Amino acid sequence: MKLLMMGPPGAGKGTQAKKIVDEYQLANISTGEMFRDSYRKKESLGLLAMEFIRDGHLVSDEITIEIVRRRLFANHVEKNFLLDGFPRTIAQAEALEEMLDVTGSKLDAVIQIVVSDAVILNRMVGRRSCSICGATYHIDYKPPHQDGVCDSCGGVLYQREDDKHESVKNRLDIYKEKTKPLIDYYESRGILFEVNGEKSFDAVYQAIKALLDERL
Ligand code: AP5
Ligand code: MG
Ligand code: ZN
Questions:
Q1: Is 14's C-beta closer than 6 angstroms to any atom of ligand 1?
Q2: How far apart are CA 17 and CA 86, in angstroms?
């Protein structure tokens, strides 16, 4: 199964992706997580990427396509995966299609999580992320058992640098300009499915699961 999770920043892609990959045994490939992980390790890729991420800009297509190519095809060909946050531009979508063409495969479904701008801002401000495992919390909607500590691994929770107000605004603008056109791109291929992301965590999850079970 080859899936893609799309939606504006803060829509709940990462939150849902973690559950879906467990349920369907998929590799979880999030370009945002890959960049943040590389930054934590002080690698040159991560340090460079953070220059763009911090202010809410996109990392270049060239760099992003290359890290996905390596992740999908370097050691072994990944057959079952969920992409979260990639592709984000038409150029990236075309590159992905070419990569999959080479192996004679294609995406099975693209899940678009639909959420309004007002809900997004509220979710971003309250988000906290684990510095070790990347798990995501929300101070009101999904608080950790112990303040500032990750439930699953005990790591310290932090607020992402790009969750500042100005940066969130940039991310939303860039989403509308660069990433939203992908909705038409995948709709025209007949593999786009929309899910209302403003419901509860579990309701959103059940909606995604229902459409995957029906289709795949
Ligand atoms: P990335 O990490 O992908 O960020 P994003 O797209 O902005 O999305 P987020 O991770 O912020 O939100 P999410 O949808 O995962 O929501 P979450 O589940 O956390 O990318 C970061 C940056 O890296 C980009 O801006 C760019 O610079 C760079 N980058 C990455 N990929 C790139 C690419 N392909 N090309 C170029 N550059 C790239 O949920 C948000 C909050 O809401 C959480 O607190 C959560 O607990 C809460 N929440 C979730 N669901 C619910 C619910 N149903 N009810 C109540 N609260 C909820
Ligand atoms: Mg995310
Ligand atoms: Zn953790």
A1: yes
A2: 13
- Ligand 1 atom 15: the closest Cα is on which residue? 14
What confidence tens digit (pLDDT) does each residue in 125-149 have?
899 999 998 899 999 999 999 999 9
Beta-carbon neighbour count of residue 172 at 10 Å? 18
The arithmetic mean of pLDDT across residues 163-178, rounded, is 91
Q: Where are the domains of the chain?
A: 2-117+167-215
Which ligand has the shortest distance to the CA of 123? 1
Q: How far is the CA of 213 from the centre of ligand 2 (A)?
A: 23
What homologous superfamily does CATH list for 2-117+167-215? P-loop containing nucleotide triphosphate hydrolases (3.40.50.300)
Annotated catalytic, 13? yes
Rg (CA), the chain: 17
Residue 210 CB burial class (10 angstroms; 0-12, 13-18, ≥19): exposed
**CA of residue 136 to ligand 2 center, whole Å:** 8
Active-site annotation holder among 2, 18, 123, 171: 171
What is the separation, in whole angstroms, between the first and last Cα of the chain?
A: 8
What's CA 59's distance to the chain center, in Å?
14
What is the C-alpha separation between 202 and 158, in angstroms, rounded? 24
